[in-house]
Amino acid sequence: MADRCLSLGWAFNYACLGVSRASNTQALFNQADQLNVFYREDKQLATHLLTERLAELTAFISKVDHLYLTIDIDVFSASIAPGVSAPAPRGISYETIEILLQPILDAKNQAGKSKLILADFAEYNPEFDSDKQTARLVARLAWDISKSMLSVE
After folding, report:
1. Which of 119, 126, 45 has its CA nearest to residue 81?
2. Rounded CA gap, 31 and 36, in Å?
3. Do 134 and 124 touch, CB atoms closer than 8 A?
4. Residue 146 is part of a domain; what is its CATH number?
């Protein structure tokens, strides 16, 4: 994506919330830094820090015309999302995602239309989801996001 934006002379605006330093290489963080990616680690999404994260996210959203949202399911704690290839021992809660989703779902462009034009989910693996707990989590997320996108006039 970054290369494509660069080739078209577009700004590369990319945010990643909840990334685990323990589960990613330093090279990936270095590349994110070089590309000026806005990222916050999972531990930076603790409840007492959410007001600051919401302000940062709102500022990021204000800079773009459209939003493409991907929720990587392995961002959630393994206790609520075991059906992924890389379960997170720390992870984040559904409640945290709900709070962070709100400014994304509420964001409007100058014409009053939703900035969110596409949403998807990554890393769900039914092979590791024996009780379908993770499938239900993804279904709830899809419902919440779809309901919001469909209610936009």
Report:
1. 126
2. 9
3. yes
4. 3.40.800.10
Query: Taking a C-beta distance cutoff of 8 angstroms, is the pair 144, 101 a contact?
Result: yes
Half-sphere exposure of 116 (CA within 13 A, CB side): 20
The pTM is what? 0.92
Domain count, the chain: 1
Which residue is it, tokens 């577009």?
A: 10
Statement: residue 152 has pLDDT above 60: no
Q: Do the Cβ atoms of 121 and 70 come closer than 8 Å?
A: yes
**Rounded to an integer, what distance in angstroms lies between the CA atom of residue 91 and that of residue 72?**
11
Instruction: Retrieve residue 130's tokens.
Output: 């024996």
What type of residue is 115?
A: K
Provide the token pair at 60: 């990021």
